[in-house]
Backbone:
């Protein structure tokens, strides 16, 4: 199965009149990035889709890394074979990098907050 590639909320054109698709680890990462950036509860028919990462700025700077990892794990709990192995908060960029493992492969999901 292939997934259409998204960047900044837009589909990526393939230069041939269609859109880029990805599969394998890239597909899993695309799904993870989508689920991490969508606000949890913003789709009425899918109330558990998305994450609470948008709430991260309410946390103390020192707690954002661990709370962010928890929010990411909650959002990605339904993804088969995907585990959140940690997170790193970058205060200068206001960005959380979520460390993921899928079928033995390490994946990084940087999320701007």
Residues:
């Amino acid at each position: 199965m292939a997934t259409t590639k998204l960047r900044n909320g837009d589909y990526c054109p393939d230069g041939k009149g269609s859109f880029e698709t990805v599969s394998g680890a890239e597909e899993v990462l695309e799904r993870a990035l989508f689920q991490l950036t969508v606000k949890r509860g913003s789709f009425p028919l899918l109330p558990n889709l998305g994450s609470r990462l948008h709430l991260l700025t309410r946390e103390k700077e020192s707690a954002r890394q661990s709370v962010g990892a928890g929010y990411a794990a909650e959002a990605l709990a339904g993804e088969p074979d995907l585990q959140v192995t940690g997170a790193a908060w970058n205060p200068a960029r206001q960005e959380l990098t979520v460390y993921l493992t899928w079928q033995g492969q390490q994946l990084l999901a940087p999320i701007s907050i």
